[in-house]
Amino acid sequence: MIRIKDFCYWYPGQDQPALDGIDLEIPEGQFCGVVGPNGAGKSTLCYALSGFAPHFFHGTWEGELQVGKRDVPRSTLGELAGEIGLVFQNSFNQISGARFTVREEIAFGLENLGLKRKEIERRVEETLALIDLEALAERSPFALSGGQQQRVAIASILAMQPKLLVLDEPTSQLDPRGTQEVFKILDKLAGRGGTTVVLVEHKLEWLAAFADRVITFSQGRIVLDGSAKKILADEKLLKLGVGQTQFTQAAAAVQKKKFIPRSRPLPVTLKQAQKFFE
Amino acid sequence: MKLSFEGVFFTYSTGVRALDGIDLSIGSGEFVAIVGENGAGKTTLVKLLNGLLRPDGGKVVVGNWDTAEYSTAQLAGRVGFLFQNPDEQLFERAVQREVAFGPRNLGFSERKIASKSMSALKTVGLADHAEDNPYDLAPFERKLLALAATLAMDTPVLVLDEPSIGQDAAGRRRIGRILRELHTMGSTILLISHDLDFCAEYAERAVVMANGHILADGLVEKIFAQNDLLQRAAVFPPQLVRLAQALKMPTAPLKVDQFVNAYSQWHRRKKRA
Ligand SMILES: Nc1ncnc2c1ncn2[C@@H]1O[C@H](COP(=O)(O)OP(=O)(O)OP(=O)(O)O)[C@@H](O)[C@H]1O
Ligand SMILES: Nc1ncnc2c1ncn2[C@@H]1O[C@H](COP(=O)(O)OP(=O)(O)O)[C@@H](O)[C@H]1O
Ligand SMILES: [Mg+2]
Ligand SMILES: [Mg+2]
């Protein structure tokens, strides 16, 4: 689905590339988590995947970046809109402001895709139900709490049903139940729906439970790549500033005290941790 | 400085009742976490403390001031406020000016303004960015800048609305340390966060909100161990508490070292038995 070869990207006027020789292939239907310290290039990867770098941010690039059959940096944002959805890191900026209600806000992107009225209505209702926004449908998207606004931002992209979903810290303001719900939705879309999901997320516990794979960024490069459970247990994450779940930290600390043999692999989920300590 | 909400109601102009009878008092120097579902009323509640919103019933008291009798500018000298969205807070063209804005409005001397703002920038790790434009900063840096602007005002009360969002592990730890330091110095701290692991590590008392009400209020170790209660507010216990529960350990550890100690004891006891 995604094929990136030796891709570099420079923001305008920068000598240092924000993406520095990225090689990455992601198969269709994979749920791929992205972690890394602040400033590592996670958001820039999201912009590159969705064409916002270079089409919105300008700057220069080299290498290859394909999504499906599309050559992303050589396509227009208009061509990409229906195929690749991006949920921005800052949901406050995602609300278009062009419409009066949450329902209309979600319909807005679909209208731009040129869908038929009936289809738009169907998708809007489906999405409102999916992400628990029915009670807020008639409210103004600006008269909402931070977390409610973030839900609207996610919903307006989900409604477009892109083949590739790119989400940049989409749960940062969601309550824990809302976070879990979003992970479940993404898991379903990836598993049965064949949607490819690229998710930047600091909440490692949920990545461990749901993602197929985790890639780790540092200074514009991919430094670790593998199954979610393997990467999240890797102690290099500590040095990189990504941190680890408290399950993993507690397990490592107990191993140091020699209550549990070193050979036992570190847990990253609650279930694994329970087994580890029993 | 102590705070109190007495029978407080608030309804937005859209007709949404965001606070539905809130009674809460917070002692001077307490470190309180406010948790609960999206839309519970957390942000609305704390915005009453500095007059950004005014209650339509009840009384909000900051120290010995009934907020009804004071302007937002006056209250800003007592209550420092980190916004959930830094865009609501940042509007200057240089980082340095942004941080100096609050202290200048409070009428600090130029010397005090310079020293407070520089030390606040150092504390959050943005000293190297003093000359930059806030709009060129990354989102996580904008949040830290907003925190510096709040710290520079040197208020006895600090309200932090979701300070750790968008921060990596190092950033979360830095913010946690800043809060702990302020707490030891006697500041009264209100921390709103969905990150219960973070709250567990730093706060002493927890207030759980849902639907404009306070569902529960008490010591963090008591409140964060009550799954059913937290569930009603769309929240799960911290990771270590859930782990201890899964292992049927008799304690609710809040930090990794507490877990390790509790586990060591429990392990020894189990071995003997
Ligand atoms: N500007 C506004 N105008 C109208 N209603 C609002 C406004 N801001 C918030 N509300 C509503 O008031 C209620 C409480 O919102 P508030 O922002 O206080 O919640 P919160 O607990 O801070 O939630 P979150 O965790 O999502 O930040 C919600 O029903 C919300 O939709
Ligand atoms: N709009 C921009 N203009 C210039 N530089 C930027 C811009 N956005 C990000 N950068 C820089 O690119 C690098 C990667 O940033 P980013 O992709 O936002 O990282 P992350 O999302 O991992 O925190 C950083 O050095 C950052 O300062
Ligand atoms: Mg980012
Ligand atoms: Mg809020």
Would you write up a description of this structure?
The complex is a heterodimer of chains A (278) and B (273). With 278 residues, chain A is α/β, with parallel strands linked by helices. Helix content of chain A is 39%, strand content 21%. Chain A has helices at 42-50, 52-55, 77-81, 102-112, 117-130, 146-158, 176-191, 204-210, 228-232, 236-240, 246-256, 270-277, and strands at 2-10, 19-26, 31-35, 60-67, 70-71, 84-87, 164-168, 196-200, 213-218, 221-227. A six-stranded mixed sheet of chain A has the order 6-7-8-3-9-10, with helices on both faces. In chain A, β1 and β2 form a beta hairpin. The N and C termini of chain A lie far apart (41 Å). Chain B has 273 residues and is α/β, with parallel strands linked by helices. In chain B, 39% of the residues lie in helices and 22% in strands. In chain B, 51% of the residues are buried. Classes of the chains: A alpha/beta (278), B alpha/beta (273). At the A-B interface, α6, α7, α11 and α12 of A face α5, α6, α10 and α11 of B. Residues 11, 14, 18, 36, 38-44, 57, 217 of chain A line the site of adenosine-5'-diphosphate (ADP). Adenosine-5'-diphosphate binds next to α1 of chain A.
Tag the structure with descriptive keywords.
heterodimer, A: 278 residues, alpha/beta, Rossmann fold, 2 domains, six-stranded mixed β-sheet, four-stranded antiparallel β-sheet, 10 strands, B: 273 residues, 3 domains, 11 helices, 39% helix, binds adenosine-5'-triphosphate, binds adenosine-5'-diphosphate, binds magnesium ion
